[in-house]
Amino acid sequence: MTFCSECGTQNRDGSKFCSSCGTPLREGCANCGAHLEPTDKFCVECGTPVSGTTTATKAPSQATPVAERRHVSVLFVDLVGFTTYSEGRDAEDVRELLDLYFAKATEIIGLYGGVVEKFIGDAVMAVWGTPIAREDDAGRAVRAALELTEAVAALGRTMGAELQARAGVCTGEAAVNLAAKGQGMVAGDTVNTASRLQSAADPGSALVDRATYLGARNAVAFQPAGQVSLKGKGEAVEAWRPLRVTAQLGGFRSVDSLEPAFTGRDEEFRLIKDLLHATTRERKLRIASIMGIGGIGKSRLIWELYKHVDGLSEDHVWLQGRSPSYGEGVAFWALAEMVRMRAGIAETDDAAATSDKLDACLAEYVTAEDDREWMRPFLAHLIGLEERANA
């Protein structure tokens, strides 16, 4: 008897394909295609070595399940106004816009830990919860939805087009195909509901279901959208409209009171995020300077960036310091604060404790001994531990 390597079904001897899932049961030679027996180490026709075992020799205990139920968050994003944009334009211009849109969507979804499931025309479907599941997948999906709607509007302005996107996020159980890569990863009512929520959203906004709202409400501000009738659904779905990110993924906020809306600085914020992502992608140092009189919102801009970084899937080391606006010798005050914070140096620590903590920090974050040798005296002088030796 022959066992299928995918689903474990017992098949009749001589079967070429599994009667349950259609998987080929017999392997052929990779060079000439000749039939191989389980005991063959070399092809009897051309002598090519046989790598591994044939699929027919795997027992059910070795078989990997094709699909399983998982708790996932599904995102659908669709362009609004794309048909109007396409009319009367050269096909290459339309293709260029779609390429930019798909590239930006793939980047943003990946930054928040999601996986692009497929592209459907000018729509994008993504999933969180497979192959890696996180407890904050719903919040990440909502953040990606907000980011994508903003990015599409910015892309439209760049291309001279009135372009917007609408998004829908649904969280729940779905059948996940563990062997699939890309299209065909998830299926079920969660996917259909996410698609319908996207269709019901206003241009430039998103709608989420109750499960997504409960999973993301500690870090995202929502507006109730009431009961929404969705095509193909027997009952109306309770929906919410995400407005903005108000806290870290865990719900930590900069202030205990309600946070006012972040308005009037969308373009500046987008430029800083693009700079950050380019730095991460290209591994090149960049500096962004934010200048202005007191009270115009520089600190708020930094807080918004911090919340954004906190939601990304890639690990970042965040260092923050502040320089006083008075006194002398304060040019590197902020940098000194960053070093003390990362090393865990308290104001009450004596010279010996400060020196030990600085050495431990360098050993942890600077792997090259040569780099530690030249950095150590510089950082010690920076934090006031010792005078810098004259060159």
Main sheet characteristics: 6 strands, mixed
**Kindly, what is the distance between the CA atoms of the first and last residues, rounded to a whole number of angstroms?**
81 Å
Indicate the structural class: alpha+beta
Rg (C-alpha, Å): 28 Å
Poorly predicted regions: 52-63
Seen as an oligomer or otherwise, the chain set is: single chain
Strand content: 15-25%
- From N to C, what is the helix and strand string? EEEHHEEHEEHEHEEHHHHH
Number of strands: 10
Average pLDDT level: 81
How many alpha or pi helices?
10
Helix content: 25-40%
Shape: globular
Q: If you had to describe this structure to a student in words, what would you say it looks like?
A:
The radius of gyration is 28 Å and the shape is globular. The chain has helices at residues 82-86, 91-111, 137-159, 189-200, 210-216, 266-282, 298-310, 333-343, 351-365, 369-382; strands at 2-3, 10-11, 67-80, 115-120, 123-128, 164-177, 186-187, 206-208, 220-228, 237-245. Helices cover 35% and strands 17% of the residues. By secondary structure, the protein is an alpha+beta fold. Residues 52-63 have low confidence and may be disordered. Strand 1 (2-3) and strand 2 (10-11) form a beta hairpin. Helix 2 runs antiparallel to helix 3 and helix 3 (137-159) packs across helix 5 (210-216). It contains 10 helices and 10 strands.
